[in-house]
Amino acid sequence: MAAAIKPYRIGVDVGGTNTDAVILDTRETKSANRGVVAWHKTPTTSPNVTDGIEAAVRSVLDQSKAPRDQVACLTIERVPPFSDFPPVLKSIMNGYYCYVDGGLHIDGSQEAPINEDQIVRECAIIKEKGLDAVVISGVFSPIDDHFYQEDHVRRIVRRELPDVDIVCSSEVSQIGYLERENASILNASILKFARRTIRGFKNAMKRLDLNCTLYLTQNDGTLIDAPSAARLPIRTFSSGPTNSMRGAAYLGLSGQSDGTEEKTATIVVDIGGTTSDVGVLLPSGFPRQASAYVTVAGVQINFGMPHLESIGLGGGSIVRSENGKVTVGPDSVGHFLSTRAKVFGGDVLTATDIAVAAGEKIGDPNLVQDVDQNTVADARARMKTMLENVVDLMKTSPAPLPVLLVGGGSVIAPTELDGVSKVICPPFHSVANAVGAAMSKVGGTVDMIQSSEERTVKEIVEQAKETAIERAVASGALRETVYLAEVDALPLQYVANQVRVIARAVGELSPDGVPPSDSVLDDDDEDDEQIYKEAAKRDAHLDEPNAAAIDIEKYRPKTPDDEIVDRALRASCSEMGSRVGMAAKPTTTDRVHKYSVINTISLAWRIGRCIARAHANNTLSTVAEQMIDEIGGPETAKVLFRGKIIAVERRLFKGHSYGEITIQQTQQSEEEKSGSDNVPAVAVGGTLKIPFKNENIYAKHISETGEEKYIAMVPDLISVLDTQSGKALGVPEFRYGLMVTVLGIACSPRWSDTPRGLEYGGPGAFGYKNIEYKPLGTYVEPKSVVFEFAED
Asked: Which residue intervals of the chain bear CATH 3.30.420.40?
């Protein structure tokens, strides 16, 4: 006999200020109230967040009168990282680290086998130090479907250290060694807290007589069951923005279309008490993802997270009028809005007061009658401009898009915005995040590198699709509702016949497909305060035994010229793939000075320092100008173009990435925000095309009238900078919609002064024999860091 369908779902969002809860009846999703039976908002409790969660869930259950046994699932928005950790634990995470044999090549072959004796020796050191969490991270471990090296090491560590937590990086994140390692370390550091918090959730469910499955929402908007979340809490810590966008889509878009309209992207503006977070919902219903790498508390990780822009505008933003100029924010009264805002009897003029003075029904309108109407008009105009600017930043084309307003502070937003087709403020907008948690879907993801030598890329992609669908079903999705939300195939540069395939399938949660979890989490001491001792640092050195290269000394092959040798060595490097170095024979100092480009490391250091200083001083808008000054001035380096990547074409041939990017001029409003210190670009308006073969070959400007002009070309350096970070984008990082600044740098005379140099490094070397090289500027030799900072 089939189990009875349980129609109710509970969603909870744990925010920094408030905890929101809703209960939905999935049978009424087409009704006017979208199935929302009851909702509740309560202050987030600290340090024990479960008290606030329990109070919120109890409230919606009491309001709705829903039978406890008819609740299908409880979905909690996130486990906040370090929310009750003492500050010292946040900064001291490195108890010890070591390196052991192992790892894979990019083609999946084994770089070195696991040495069990090494593992046992390191376990003894870990035990001596009293550490209780171990991270195992191997090179290319996410594609290890044959040797299972990380799992092998885990079995050894578990045997030697049965009481420690063990995290394998391949289970935490995907390709990207440093970012995967970072995410695994963060995950290991919050395991105890996650287990204790989820145990608190389950205890609260028992007290509320809820015998249903507990899920948490992940950063990408899909669900994860409680035992998995306790093992991988890092996947859940930043799901709030995703929940808001998913909830906004459910409340504001579902049922709005008659089926004849083409699905389009939607801007979601979540206005809270202090900030407004703006994201983009794709036609798939999931948020547009941020770039490949994101930073969390200063740590770079490679999780899929929504692309967000935030501004200091919220319901509690403080409004000031000085010398006839009205400002709104960025400072805010925050969660003291109900006591400090004028409409609630306070003495601080806030954005909410402005909204009430303009006609909104909140608090006591009589308390803002004395606010000058000019101030009201100017403040509303300022808030409108702020929202229009941040919405425009998120758009990838000038076409107007619909905007969904959610969040408790959405009452301060205007009903119309320039560049927006329509503004929608759905019902229950103040608890859209909790609605999104309740209506989240189940997902399955595949991220793998496969060889295309024996199979076509299409066959590899189809396999990835099938695997993603099966993983979604295994996680609790209804098979008939599963669809593919993302499919991408990326050729790997410098590696022949290797392709990275990413596929993500999502589907509706089966109301009776996954039974409640009865797994018992480990009982950790409530006192998690442990101070790790200063880590002992191991000397890095080569400890391989010396061996005489007798055979090499005796065998001296002969070759007619050096080109044959060079081709053989290059072929080996290309076969190995990834990053490969080749050690050539030593040379003399005189030859280095005569034929080499001098002080290149010093120049790289100086450019890196420019970026670091720009981040520290909040001067990223002029980082290109700072680089120009360091490189040698405007005669040596120039800003070629500023704009947005609107097209990326690429293909792989013999381990090299070939393709072309098209950059479109940025809008005037975005240029004005850059500041008056920006130097004019060599070309403005129109578009810029840059073909590449691992390196950017030339920059061709096409004006609005169709006139074409080459403004830079090899051997001069053409660098495409990410405008937001100031860092140079590599060929694999070119993405549609990225804001970029194109910088041109004059090459060394070693390349340009002789026909031989241009033959090997000019446009003709890349197949463009019809393009005549024209120097960008005058080369200036970089200053030596060694000489500049050497002691007298």
From this structure: 8-85+194-237
